[in-house]
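in:
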């Protein structure tokens, strides 16, 4: 069970690393809110094809937990991705990928603050390394800029996005006893519905870009892999090893995201990117070691 959870989370983070690259490729070919709506519409249509029997069976439980399930979709799916794609208008795909390394640290912080989840000194040290890595990338290699709060606007948007996803993750502990198809379908529907007002706002502001061929390819990738496949596997991972340990695997997103950004987009790999990656991976290693010592 643990090995399957690990494999599920590795594939998840690979798809999410590619999501940052896809979002960068979307610029000029499909706008952020249109992309957010399109990916979740595709995810809803795909999951609906295979989940109707399960949805009928689970409907009594779904109806009682509809606000919670819609909350998962609005916060974890729609809000996170709308902020991520908007951030890519102002910062690089590498930065977006590496700032996501802050999610595991926030998961531990929120779990401790809200549920008094036990944290070891080794885990705190691991979180600290992750935090330094996130700050390093947000400050573009110059931590002194944080004194004057000179943050790239895109990086700031990503800090809000990772906070939203960390909250979504810890509240998965309250997920109702329904099948994984239902657990994917209802939040995906909520994400698509929540994205509609954002599309209307984008149209009204004159910023909407409807997808061309490249834009449609991005929408299809994000709808199939970054949305459907990744979210289902992430839920499996959380169920298998818990939110804290599953969250640590998100530190692999910057690894995959950075490698894909350099290979696909030709983005420049800076020294501070490498330092941030080392800190992120060092953080996950130390925190996981701490978990084994206290487990």
């Amino acid at each position: 069970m643990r090995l399957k959870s690990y494999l599920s989370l590795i594939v998840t983070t690979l798809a999410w690393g590619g999501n940052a690259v896809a979002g960068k490729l979307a610029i000029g070919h499909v706008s952020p809110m249109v992309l957010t709506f399109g990916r979740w519409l595709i995810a809803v249509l795909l999951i609906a094809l295979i989940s109707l029997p399960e949805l009928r069976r689970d409907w009594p439980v779904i109806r009682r937990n509809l606000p919670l399930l819609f909350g998962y979709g609005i916060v974890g799916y729609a809000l996170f991705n709308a902020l991520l794609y908007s951030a890519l208008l102002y910062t690089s795909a590498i930065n977006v990928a590496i700032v996501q390394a802050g999610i595991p640290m926030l998961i531990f912080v929120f779990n401790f603050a809200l549920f008094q989840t036990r944290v070891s000194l080794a885990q705190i040290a691991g979180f600290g390394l992750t935090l330094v890595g996130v700050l390093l990338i947000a400050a573009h290699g110059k931590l002194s800029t944080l004194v004057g709060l000179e943050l790239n606007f895109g990086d700031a948007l990503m800090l809000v996005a990772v906070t939203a996803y960390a909250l979504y993750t810890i509240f998965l502990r309250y997920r109702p006893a329904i099948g994984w198809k239902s657990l994917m379908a209802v939040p995906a529907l909520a994400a698509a519905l929540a994205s509609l007002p954002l599309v209307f706002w984008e149209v009204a502001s004159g910023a909407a870009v409807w997808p061309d061929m490249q834009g449609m390819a991005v929408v299809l990738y994000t709808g199939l892999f970054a949305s459907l496949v990744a979210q289902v596997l992430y839920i499996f991972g959380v169920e298998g090893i818990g939110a804290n340990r599953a969250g640590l695997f998100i530190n692999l997103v910057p690894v995959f995201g950075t490698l894909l950004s350099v290979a696909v987009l030709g983005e420049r790999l800076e020294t501070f990117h490498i330092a941030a990656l080392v800190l992120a991976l060092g953080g996950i290693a130390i925190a996981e070691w701490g978990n084994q010592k206290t487990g």
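note: DSSP finds twelve helices and no strands in the chain.
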